[in-house]
Design goal:
GO molecular function, one term: DNA binding
Keywords: DNA integration, DNA recombination, DNA-binding
Family: Belongs to the 'phage' integrase family.
CATH architecture of the largest domain: Orthogonal Bundle
Protein name: Integrase arm-type DNA-binding domain-containing protein
CATH superfamily of the largest domain: Intergrase catalytic core
Strand order of the largest sheet: 1-2-3-4-5
Number of strands: 8
Largest sheet: 5 strands, mixed
Helix content: 40-55%
Structural class: alpha+beta
Distance between the termini: 88 Å
CATH class of the largest domain: Mainly Alpha
GO biological process, one term: DNA recombination
């Protein structure tokens, strides 16, 4: 077989024959050029992995001439010869590199991670967690393969959220979970976050809204376009989690016995819960349904009826602006939608509701529902929950009717 130093001159000089013609490099054993009868020029590397001359000859296609220069092909042949010297089969290396480029590219891996890990393990909050990763991690990592991600990359992801401790802690925890999962699946040898210090934990929130603040929020929500205004009032009346209310489908609601049946796969803690609906909650939902019977499909809190509501941030800013108008221009001290849940829990204690009933309403699995007590105490507190939520609803109604009537949204007009 002819041999020569493979360069542009020798490659161009090889003539097309009636069958494949080979030119082998005189410096790198196994590095060659194949010229097909159709005139295609392809660089290749031929090798035996083990056993000397008795071993099977294998060929690895480096690439076509034109897409690669002779020098580029030579560099790849050098790399392949070093792999063979180390006992690594270039074909296996090629498969692994392809896997990293395609399967382990971060966007592809994130899709699989969301389906296989977030959906079953993060329950009702899976959508929000996935959206957070797509917002902050994707722009920083683009299509980088998991094994190529470094601490520097993780730091770049975290940089935009440094001033937001709660978000930073959550994002850090989710990223750490993702990389640990990759290690457990054999997709990574080591997490790039090993040794990284967690962000400082945010100060525990203990904000409990005053009665006058609840009235302001209720009335301010009437001036905000639905579905967000109704969502805020439903949060206030039920004490359920934001994601659970925002993603509420009509199919979970029973109008005949005024009940919301949250399934386990939508609950944050994976525990199903029945929430009795107070008179005010029923009026609010009936208004959202445009009166009459409630629908059996679609989303309750939705601008289109086709997808759940998700634009919390902008809607919350509009609500705060409306509250300020009602409050003589004063902005309400920093508060969050989750404070409505804490306020309901605290308010129920003031109303004399048993702690176990409050925990059952909040669907907590700690406290009175944990350990041995949680195993043997199986009463669901259904009647007690209904009475407690109606008492809370009556309390809010009392706050509103005690206010200036010109600024009050009556419960019978639950949807402005």
């Amino acid at each position: 077989m002819p041999t020569a130093r493979i360069n542009k001159s020798t490659v161009d000089a090889v003539r097309v024959g009636s069958k494949d013609v080979f030119l082998w490099d005189e410096k790198i054993p196994g590095f060659g050029l194949k010229v097909t009868p159709a005139g295609s020029r392809v660089y290749l590397y031929q090798y035996r992995l083990h056993g000397g001359r008795g071993a099977k000859v294998r060929r690895y296609t480096i690439g076509k001439h034109g897409a690669l220069t002779p020098d580029q092909a030579r560099g790849e042949a050098n790399r392949l010869s070093m792999l063979v010297a180390q006992g690594v089969d270039p074909q296996s290396d090629k498969i692994e590199r392809k896997r990293q480029t395609i399967d382990l590219a971060f966007p592809t891996y994130l899709d699989a991670f969301a389906k296989d890990c977030l959906a079953p393990n993060w329950k009702g909050s899976a959508g929000g967690v996935e959206a957070m990763l797509r917002r902050y991690a994707l722009p920083a990592l683009r299509s980088k393969a998991l094994p190529e991600i470094t601490r520097v990359d993780v730091a770049a992801i975290m940089r935009p959220v440094k001033a937001r401790p709660a978000l930073a802690s959550k994002l850090f925890a989710v990223l750490r979970y993702l990389f640990r999962h990759a290690v457990s699946e054999g997709d990574l040898a080591r997490s790039p976050m090993d040794g990284m210090k967690s962000p400082s934990a945010p100060a525990a929130r203990d904000r409990v809204l005053e009665d006058w603040e609840l009235a302001l929020i209720w009335n301010g929500s009437a001036a905000v376009a639905d579905p967000f205004g109704s969502m805020v009032r439903l949060l206030m009346l039920t004490g359920q989690r934001r994601e659970e209310v925002a993603g509420l489908p009509w199919s979970e609601l029973r109008q005949t016995d005024a009940m919301w049946k949250l399934p386990a796969d939508r609950a944050k803690n994976g525990q199903p819960v029945d929430t009795p609906l107070s008179t005010a909650a029923v009026l609010l939902l009936t208004a959202l349904a445009k009166g009459g019977n409630w629908p059996r499909r679609g989303w309750v809190i939705s601008t289109t009826g086709k997808v759940p509501f998700s634009g919390y941030s902008k809607a919350k800013k509009r609500l705060d602006a409306e509250i300020a108008k009602l409050n003589t221009g004063e902005v309400l001290e920093r508060w969050t939608l989750h404070d409505l849940r804490r306020t309901l829990a605290t308010g129920m204690q003031r109303l004399g509701v048993r702690f176990e009933v409050t925990e059952a309403i909040l669907n907590h699995v700690s406290g009175s529902r944990s350990g041995v007590a949680g195993v043997y105490q199986r009463h669901d507190w259904g009647p007690e929950k209904a009475r407690a939520l109606q008492s809370w609803s009556d309390h809010i109604e009392g706050l509103l009717t005690a206010s200036d009537k010109s600024n009050v949204v009556q419960f019978a007009e639950a949807r402005a």
